[in-house]
Write a structure and sequence with these properties.
There is one protein chain. By secondary structure, the chain is of the alpha/beta class. Helices cover about 35% and strands about 20% of the residues. It has helices spanning about 10-20, 40-45, 50-55, 55-65, 80-90, 115-125, 150-160, 170-180, 200-205, 225-235, 235-250, 360, 370-390, 405-410, 420-435, 445-450, 455-459, and strands at about 1-5, 25-30, 70, 90-95, 100, 115, 140-145, 185-190, 210-215, 260-265, 265-275, 280-295, 300-310, 315, 320, 340, 345, 350-355. It has a seven-stranded mixed β-sheet, sandwiched between helices. Strands 6-14-7-8-10-9 form a six-stranded parallel β-sheet. The longest helix has 21 residues, at about 370-390.
C-alpha cells in the first residue's frame, strides 16, 4: 500500500498516524506546500499561546518515528498534479485545511484599512507567503467576530510588544506592533453573550493582559430562552457568560489602562464607512452596526437602530474558508471538498482512492479533538475500501515499476524539504532563541527556510 497525504498540519498528521496503525506496513508520504510542517499550529496560533503550540511536541513524536515520510515545499497543482499522485499511490488523502478569510458581504469591505483576520494572523505568526510589514496606523480599530480568532486579533493589536518579547514573535512583527498608535479595539458580536463562541480560557486570558482594560457594556446583555438553554447545556457557555458578567459589573472609572478592548454584543455590521483623506482616497473611518435583539431561540434580528463607531481600521474575523485544489471537486458555497465520511464525491458518487479530512472536509469548525475524530472516520472508510479492493492498485498496471515521487520532484528541480531538513531548521530556530532568551526565533523568509531545511545546501 502506498498512500499520499496532502497537508502536514494536525489533520494530515493525525490521518497519517491513524493510517499507519490501522494498516501496518503502509508506505505514507506526507506532502506540504511550505518547507516546514504543522500548518495552523505554526502559522495560525497567536505567539503568546505556548500551551496550544505545545501540540507541536505531540506531532513531533509522530513524524519523528520515521514511518511517515515528510515531503515539504511542494505545491499541489504546480509542482505535481493530483492526477499524478493518484497514478503513483493507491490512495490520496487531502488535508489542505482552510486558510482564506470567509467573505463578509457589506458595503465598504474593500476599503483601505479593511483587513481579513486570517491575513493578519499569518503576518504576526511569520508566515513566509505574506508581506513582512503591516499597516498599523489606526488608533481605534474594530474587530468583527465572536470567536477565538477575534479575541486573538484584538489581544495582539492591544498588547504591548514588550509583553510579547518572550514568545516566538518574529522581530519584524514586534517592530511593527511597537510603532502602532492603537488605544482602543472594539470587538463586535451580532448575538448575545450566551451565543459567543469564545473558549473560557481564551476569554479569561484577555483580562490578564498588562495595561489593557476590558470593557463590557451592561446594555449589550440580553438573554432569551435559547440563551438559557445554551447555558444549561454547556458548562463552557456558563463560564463565558460568568466572565463577561463580571466585567460588565466593573466600575468604568476603574478603567485606567493606556489601551482598552471593548466587547460589544447585539451589534451586526451593515457597512464599513469610508471617508476621503487629503489625497482624495477613501479610507475606513467608521464601522456602522445595527442593534439586534434575540428572537427567543438564540438567533437575532435587526431592530433598525444604527450605530456608527469611529475607527480607522476593521478586521473581519468571521471564519476561515477552504481553497479549491486543481483536479478535485469543490463546493464554492461552503468552501469544502464534497465528501461522504471523507470519501470525495463527484456528482454524488465516490471517487475511488480519493479522500478528505480536516477543515477541507467538514469546514473550519471544531478544535484538535474534532480533527482526530474526523481523521478516524476518513481512515476507517479508506481501510474499508482497501478491504473491498476499491481504488487499490489503480495507479499502475501489474508489474509496472513504482516511481519514487521524491526523486521525481527532485528531477523537476523542486527544492523538496524532508523531516531531516525540518530538524535542521528547528534546531537553528532554537539556537537563535537561546541567544535571545526565548524558546525559538522563527525564520520567516521562505528562501531561507528552504535553504536551512536542505542538508545538501547547508553542508
Amino acid at each position: 500500500m502506498r498512500v499520499a497525504v496532502v497537508g502536514a498540519g494536525p489533520a494530515g498528521i493525525y490521518a497519517s498516524d491513524i493510517l499507519s496503525r490501522t494498516l501496518p506496513g503502509t508506505s505514507i508520504d506526507l506532502f506540504d506546500r511550505l518547507p516546514a510542517p504543522y500548518g495552523l499550529v505554526r502559522y495560525g496560533v497567536a505567539p503568546d499561546h505556548p500551551r496550544i503550540k505545545a501540540i507541536v511536541n505531540a506531532l513531533d513524536k509522530i513524524l519523528g518515528r520515521g514511518d511517515i515520510r515528510l515531503i515539504g515545499n511542494v505545491e499541489l497543482g504546480t509542482d505535481i498534479a493530483v492526477e499524478e499522485l493518484r497514478e503513483h499511490y493507491d490512495a490520496v488523502v487531502l488535508a489542505t485545511g482552510a486558510i482564506r478569510d470567509a467573505a463578509l458581504d457589506v458595503p465598504g469591505v474593500d476599503l483601505p484599512g479593511s483587513f481579513g483576520a486570517a491575513d493578519f494572523v499569518s503576518w504576526f505568526d511569520g508566515h513566509p507567503d505574506v508581506p513582512r510589514t503591516w499597516p498599523l496606523e489606526a488608533r481605534e480599530i474594530a474587530v468583527i467576530g465572536a470567536g477565538n480568532v477575534a479575541l486573538d486579533v484584538a489581544r495582539m493589536l492591544a498588547k504591548h510588544p514588550k509583553d510579547l518579547a518572550p514568545t516566538e514573535i518574529p522581530a519584524n512583527v514586534a517592530d511593527g506592533l511597537a510603532a502602532s498608535p492603537v488605544t482602543d479595539v472594539h470587538v463586535f458580536a451580532r448575538r448575545g453573550p450566551a451565543q459567543a463562541k469564545f473558549s473560557p480560557l481564551e476569554l479569561r486570558e484577555l483580562g490578564h493582559v498588562p495595561d489593557v482594560d476590558v470593557i463590557v457594556y451592561p446594555e449589550d446583555f440580553a438573554f432569551d430562552a435559547g440563551s438559557e438553554a445554551a447555558m444549561a447545556a454547556s458548562n463552557q457557555t456558563r463560564q463565558v457568560v460568568a466572565t463577561l458578567t463580571d466585567w460588565a459589573l466593573n466600575d468604568p472609572a476603574a478603567a485606567t489602562a493606556s489601551r482598552r478592548i471593548h466587547l460589544h454584543f447585539l451589534h451586526q455590521p451593515v457597512e464599513i464607512v469610508g471617508e476621503p483623506g487629503d489625497d482624495g482616497v477613501a479610507r475606513v473611518s467608521a464601522l456602522r452596526t445595527e442593534r439586534t435583539e434575540l428572537t427567543g431561540d438564540g438567533t437575532s434580528r435587526g431592530t433598525g437602530t444604527v450605530v456608527d463607531t469611529p475607527v480607522q481600521a476593521v478586521y473581519r474575523a468571521v471564519g476561515y474558508f477552504g481553497s479549491p485544489i486543481p483536479g478535485v471537486p469543490f463546493d464554492d458555497v461552503h468552501g469544502v471538498i464534497p465528501n461522504d465520511g471523507g470519501r470525495v464525491l463527484l456528482d454524488g458518487e465516490p471517487v475511488p482512492g480519493l479522500y478528505a479530512t480536516g477543515w477541507i472536509k467538514r469546514g473550519p469548525v471544531g478544535l484538535i479533538g474534532h480533527t482526530k475524530s474526523d481523521a478516524q472516520e476518513t481512515i476507517r472508510n479508506l481501510a474499508a475500501d482497501v478491504e473491498a479492493g476499491i481504488g487499490l492498485r489503480a495507479r499502475v498496471a501489474e508489474g509496472a515499476e513504482q516511481v519514487d515521487v521524491l526523486a521525481l520532484l527532485e528531477e523537476r528541480g523542486v527544492p523538496v524539504t524532508t523531516w531531516e531538513g525540518w530538524e535542521l531548521l528547528s534546531a537553528h530556530e532554537r539556537a537563535l532563541g537561546e541567544v535571545e532568551g526565548r524558546a525559538r526565533v522563527k525564520v520567516v523568509p521562505r528562501e531561507e527556510m528552504t535553504a536551512l531545511s536542505r542538508p545538501s545546501l547547508v553542508r
